[in-house]
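TICKET #2291
ISSUE: user wants both folds in one file
ATTACHMENT 1:
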Amino acid sequence: MPIFLKALLLFILSLSQSYANDELAKITAQLVKTPIAQGQFQQQKRLKILRKPLLSTGTFTYHHSQGVIWKTLTPMPSLLLINETHLLTGQGEQAVPPAFGSVFKALLGGELNRLTESFDITGKDQKNSWQLQLTPKDALLKKVISSITLTGDTELRQLELQEASGNLTQINFTQITHPDQLSQEQQADFERLSP
């Protein structure tokens, strides 16, 4: 390839990356950022082996330094606690790769710029809404996730996760609030996680 074409290609790639960074900065600036966010979710999971999607509902709590509480209420109650280094479920606690733990916090905490460490990001910012497409860079994430599509306004409203296996999960977030402090129950849940 002639040097001129290589230089032109590099220039075009740097422009597209700069544009993506500008879009991400604009979107991140719109988001409400507080130490605590909580709300409800409705999750629809489409498995390749099933005709009907699996539906679940529940609540989530994000705390900027303690992590995320993901509480499924229907159809089967369950609890998932995650911080940047550990994940706790009914089956016990395990260490998680740093890329995995930071993704949860970045998504629910409005820290979308942190996602550039683990994902290539493209997006579009419209007047009252935005959408981002995330493609994993991290080898461990690539084994699980093909892509993530985020949609929102001043909050993250929808997350669509395309798994490497072909399964698809769509999560809608509603009734999002930003309390000044955690409830006693939320604090007790976070205390169950290893530091």
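ATTACHMENT 2:
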Amino acid sequence: MINSPNAALIYPPLTDPTSGYHSLNYLDSYARSVGHRPATVIDANIEAFHHSYTPSALAWLDQALSAARTTTDLTERAHLLQTGTPDPEAIRDAVATFQDPERFFDLDAYHRAVDGVSAWMSCLGAAGFPGQFQNGFQLNAPREIEIGSLRALTDPAVLSRLSRPFTPYYQESLLPRLRAGNFDLVGISITYQWQLPFALWMARLIRETLPGVFLIAGGTEVSDCFKNLQDKKRLFELFADFDGLVVGEGESAYTEILDALGAGTLPTKHPNVRLHPKHGAVRALPMLHYEKLGELPTPDFSNLPWDKYLSPTRFVYYSPTRGCYWNKCTFCDYGLNTDGPTSPWRQDTVDRMIRDVEELSKFAQFVYFSVDVLAPAAILRFAEKVVERGIDVRWGAEIRLEKYWSDERCELLKKAGCTAISVGFESGNQRILDLIDKGTKPAQVRQTMSSMHKAGIGVQIMGFTGFPTETLEEARDSVSFLRDNRDLWTFGGLGEFVLTPGAIVAKQPDRFGISGIRSFEGADIDRTLLFDEPITQTVRDEVMADKLSLYMGEYPRPWVSSTDTPHTFFYHDRYGTEVSDLLERSVRRGPDDEDREFVLDGELLPEQDPDVLRRLAEIQRANSEEPGDRVAFRRADGRVMLLPRRTVPFLKIFAKPSTIADARRRAWMLPAESADRIWDFLIARRVIRRMPVTGDSKHTCIAPMPGRAAA
């Protein structure tokens, strides 16, 4: 019988609150399969959010905001404009909307819920660095944190202030729970860059509270720090409060740590475990270990707090492959290999995939294949077996846009429950695709998208501009490709190329026409690099203007319209490939809107200090109008918009519900075209919103598409 340590595994803020992540469950499920006791899994990200509007935390927040508003710092004052009065009833209503299977699909209610959460998080963030939380659960970190400065990431004052919004949760909930749990081991899984500063401060608090506990960290961000540190000898300067780190894949490494602690020794044998030098176990290590997927059990997600996530139904992540079978894209920097852009490609058998998904489907209706890419033949065999066995599941995955996907094969995927797929088309220009070594052609990509669309499968498309030596005309090919094929993709769009150290572009700069590759000033962790190339900033600005003409979705991650998130998949399942049209109509004036009532979606702020408005314009990179020509309008989601002062009379029309027709009559002096431009401007920027109409299926909850069940 294994002497199994008592372990707690924690997922820290700040990340997607709509579903549980799968990393800790994979570790725990594997450890249990070889005889260890179940770990206590704590999703501190979602717990901290819910704790923030408890009575004690609300009282604390009121005091924190009062103190924050006394600042004389111009940047902080500019960010504080987005901070209204915390409304705990609004946040409770937002949570209820997200968790309600009917209200969730009422677009008016959904928008209000997103706005409510975003506004709440803006208030919460002001207790740290004002403006540090954006769009709800995105971190706008101080620049030194963003670029990976060890000085900032090890500064208690910086980490403490950034984590301050979660102080009541740590002091009233997490730390007392850990003290009472009598744990031998505490592990923190750090998946995303923006979890790192919170995890580092959490580790410091845990170390102070439980000085004798064995504290470890793992996850993609730990591996990225190991890989991208300029001086790897400083790894435990960054992770000073930890006894050990897991670099790379973690299942067998975590189990060895448990085995060693149970035997009263240190885990010194597994190549993925790095021990703090204080343990005196520094040694030469072999190459990293990669798991044999056939040895991993079906992940068990039952110990996550499913009643807390901001979703109406369960959505789980599943990883039947690791690495990328293509493994050629010159911009890519996945994995931990030092001699290639991605980690080794491994794929589980289709029979095991079916076994796992059949079991998972009993627990969750939605299963997302969280992988770099799935091989086409395996997906097809998987779909055949899903249909053959009658497994009731909705699923999605990231795939390559291979010509393999004919109309008939896509129809099979749909029949097997495929809801949406995510693809990287990267560029609409063949020269750039060849430089990327993508192995695709725009015409082929269009054909595959068309087959997916015909089958009713949503295509979430991802690409970027700014690849080295890309000209203005070549970048516009990508914009034109998406615009010309707008009916074939639902969400996605064009990002911006970033150079990463492990990419072939960085290793062979002459091949790609770049020079002067260098770190950001002050950076110690080189997640991205600066470089010089012949393309000018003027060209980049023109490309950005073109990209802004594309409708890429109203909300950023994790809300509907962001790629690969639960909410987007739920809406795909409810509305099929019409989902993007539905959402785009919400920010466009339609033919039925003339007699529809609109109302301000926020409030005009009192006259502000011109210096504060000027600083806000700099932060937002807004136009250069003088502050006296602008007014500040705070939307319901907390975003502050600097609007031309001449719009004020038109805003006042909608201080109370008013139809466009009535507004047109009140603005009779304006030519019709000018009035239309104003209404379009106000609707597109969500300065005014439609009033809900009872029983209106066009503007609130559109009926499900025929033959599709609601989520």
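RESOLUTION: both attachments delivered.
EXTRA DETAIL ON ATTACHMENT 2: The radius of gyration is 26 Å.
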